[in-house]
Amino acid sequence: MAKKQERSAELLAASHATHNGVFITGASSLEVKEDVLPSELFSDDYIICASLGNCRCASDGKAIKQFTSHARVPNDATQVALGHETVQMVVQAPEVTGLQAGDLVFVTPGHSAQPVNPDTFELDIDNGILPSLGYSYRYLGGLRQFNAVPVKAIAYVKSQGFGNLFNPIKNTQNISIASLAHAEPYACCYGTNKHLFTFDSNGDFLYGVPAKARLAYLGGTARMAMINVTIVAEAADEDLPELILITGSKRKLEEMEDFLLIKQLRDRGVQVVLIDRSDPDIVSKLTEHGRPHIVWTNFASQDLYDQATAIIERGGNINNYAGASDPAIGFSMPIDAFKADSFTDEAKTMIHAAHHTLGLNDFKRESGVKKDGVCRFIGFAGQEERLQAYVDALPDSVQIVHDAGDINASNIIAEAERYDDVFIAGSGDAAAQAYADNEEALARGAAVMFVDGDCTIFVRSRLSHYTTRHQICGPNVPWFMTNTSEPHADDMALHAAKPTNFDWMVRGVVGLKDALSMMDAVEAAAPFGSFFTFAELPNLPYVEVSAQAFKDAAEKADDGQTKQALNDAAAVLEKENDTWSASAERALYAAYGVPYPLDLE
Ligand SMILES: NC(=O)c1ccc[n+]([C@@H]2O[C@H](COP(=O)([O-])OP(=O)(O)OC[C@H]3O[C@@H](n4cnc5c(N)ncnc54)[C@H](OP(=O)(O)O)[C@@H]3O)[C@@H](O)[C@H]2O)c1
């Protein structure tokens, strides 16, 4: 029997027994608890997986704090398995799934784009949630040792546009488990960058981070920002950015000067400028080398959003990665006055300027109003001739809602719940207010055009967080906005095929039983980096990644195996300049007598 099958058979046997997991058990209540998978889940309707471990994500904090009021946690939950940055081994899978015992996989985190019952995936508008890995299930989460996933979830997740639920890992050479576990944030950042758009000199959409661009990461010492920079750095030399600006606390920026990633970018000719976020001249520091074409937010605050809008180059893109914890914060966008030679020209220009993505989770866009959507005209009272020019230029397939007098159109409706394209006439405060009043009624992916412009609108961050957010469009718009992506399986598959090394970011490791010590320590000190929990090495105490910290922990350890594991890994860290590696993991696994999963054949 191949070693991989032997190990998965051992794990399958263990999965029937009581095992450990980290569970959210109430608002602000996180516990390491024993649990067991119900025997009926060991059937042809379920896939059983063993977790190799999980990386901590800052977003977990929100679910821990909010518990059942979180959009992804079921209203009646009592125990939710935490963890969505995980690597798992399949230990039992029915043939129809195409998975085999021993396969190493990433699990796609987003499972539904509509509110459903997480057990049945049946639509439930009133009580349903948006189920996802690590937030919605008792029997599935990166931080429980064994997991059960219903087979029907595979087809459901695909139907929701998220791709394959399981992404088999194709390459485990020269990579650590902790690096592999970055697949989810990798896909999130990769997808985020894929959805970025600007326009080229012909007015065509230019997707992604443009070559030789000036980039700014505000709150850029964030873990996600560093993952994003790592992805940007994968470009060929000739496509690298010309400038990367990073703001953060002085303490973390000083640490960053020594990061290999930063040194290598500088060696490759990229100007990397680190700017103290408390510098009173931060805006001039962020613009003195030229305004950035792309700005990512990595911390949700009005100050930081104001910096983004103050520095962005005309025609650039602000990626609202951080989103908003506070619904009141957002982005001020000044919109220029617009005047065409005729109403016909104006309608043609504004309708062409509207744009929408081709489909759910598709980053490509097409110009024009949504073909079968609802168009709303605001501020057109008394301007029937102007409105008629629009109506004449629109496809017959759209429905129209307007506030003017009689016009000649067959597809007028009184109102709609959501609007796909909104044209706002008028300027100044009245136009800005019309936008504010109607922002909540914008459909996901809606386009808003200010046909007179000459106003400053406030785009609320809460409504602009996901890729499908609405867009402010038109020749008078100064810059564009995109936002975070829901990690897509195709982007996780990229990491599965050719994993990117994130070992330099791994700053702490722990076994499952002591995971809460790691979480408390990270919460309290907000250090830079990634923190990995080994599910297969439950007794490993929380330890920072340095030879000295491992040696110190070894002295305190009271069981022989743990002492040996820590000392052996310390020796590896000593040789490798205190950087995490597969060799350090091998040393830990060997001392605990557990086969290292990435070496199994
Ligand atoms: N797909 C998604 O939607 C998704 C996924 C993951 C994360 N996120 C969001 O992305 C953001 C970054 O996540 P992360 O996990 O990388 O977080 P993180 O590592 O905790 O980093 C947050 C950063 O914010 C900075 N910061 C703290 N206080 C600040 C302040 N008052 N002003 C400006 N910056 C401040 C900190 O830098 P200094 O200590 O150097 O100041 C820190 O590096 C978060 O808002 C998170 O919710 C979104």
Topology:
Elements: H1 3-15, E1 19-26, E2 29-35, E3 46-55, H2 60-66, E4 80-81, E5 86-92, E6 104-107, E7 146-150, H3 152-159, E8 166-168, H4 177-180, H5 183-195, E9 197-199, E10 205-207, E11 214-218, H6 223-232, E12 243-248, H7 250-256, H8 260-267, E13 271-276, H9 282-287, E14 294-297, H10 302-311, E15 317-320, E16 330-335, H11 343-353, E17 355-357, E18 365-367, E19 374-378, H12 384-393, E20 399-402, E21 419-424, H13 428-438, E22 442-450, E23 455-460, E24 471-473, E25 480-483, H14 489-497, E26 506-511, H15 515-525, E27 530-534, E28 543-544, H16 547-556, H17 560-575, H18 582-592
Helix pairs in contact: 5-6, 5-14, 11-12, 16-17, 17-18
This protein binds NADP nicotinamide-adenine-dinucleotide phosphate (NAP).
NADP nicotinamide-adenine-dinucleotide phosphate is lined by residues 57-59, 188, 219, 221-224, 248-249, 252, 277, 298-301, 304, 321-323, 484, 526.
